[in-house]
Amino acid sequence: MHKTIEQLSRFGLTLQIIKTALAAAVSWFVATNLLRAEYPYFAAIAAILTVQVTVADSVDKATQRIIGIIGGVLLSMLIGLWLEVNVYSIFFVILAGMAVSKALRMNPQIISQVAISSLLVLAFGHINQGYAFERIIETVIGSAIAVIINAVIVPQNAIPDVENSIVSLAGSASQTLSSLRALLDYKAPKRKTGRTEVNALKREYRKTLDTLGLAEQSLRYNLFLTNKRTRLTRLAVSIRKLDHIIVQIRGIRRGLDDLQQNRPSQLSPEFAQQLAQAMEVTANCIPLFGKASVQPATDVLANLREANQHARTLQAHCLGELRSIPSPEVLRDVGSILTDLSRILAETEKQSSKGK
Length: 356
Fold this sequence. Notes:
The structure is a single chain. With 356 residues, this protein is mainly alpha-helical. The protein has two domains: 2-152; 159-355, Methane Monooxygenase Hydroxylase, Chain G, domain 1. It has 13 helices and no strands. Helix 9 runs antiparallel to helix 10, helix 11 (269-294) runs parallel beside helix 13 (328-352) and helix 12 (298-320) packs antiparallel against helix 13. The protein starts with a helix and ends with a helix. The mean pLDDT is 82.
């Protein structure tokens, strides 16, 4: 099914376009047979405007559409009681309908449809007494059918996108932490701060949150993907843990920057090398954490536990060497760096413990 959709999309026939055409056709058929209307164009128009990427968006558009048509009908019926169909009444009904819709912050497409419905009801309502009511029913039919089709036919499942984002973000976090080791190289010709790498990591985290939000929206109102909600909840927890890890990486960057900027000569090369190694092995735990969050296979969890133990050992070794640092200021900065590294492991260890 998905392969067929991919092939059709090459010719411009995307899934949303197919759903839209089908919803319009079915809405026309149902309205014709239910209302005996010869041209139930309001049903088809409502279906076209209602089909969106997610079911939640479709429900939102359907709600706005129904409110818009009801508002347009009521406005036209009210004006029709006092004015005949002429240039002035048409101007007034369209002006009032669009102004009210704009004030209610409706979708621009809906604002236009309010004007259209107001005009049509004003023009033809006096000919057919049931015209206004039939247009409302047609809109409800078209909107309802569009929502159902959008939910039933290949409903969007954005969970794979969330999983890919988690793996990518974990990899970026690992690379960023590993790159911060350059701040321990005091002999480098150009001083680095690591700010650019950390800012790029923050931007990627925000993109991951956007992907999560889209996935949550795709499951809302969709009864056919209820089994995915538990999975998405667990992935959201992993994203929050990655947020905590990123916060610690930002703290490590600030600590290293302080050491490099103010007191580079008081940190011995031997200890700087040990600290850089501890940062490297801790960074290696993060992509394993991301992979275990997406696919908690036994071998992945075992590799994560082994990496965590190795990182704990090296961090403990650095802690044992703190007594060799004579300066209280340097000791404070190095201690905060090791504390942040330990907190990163605390997050990754929560994931590895699930496989025990």
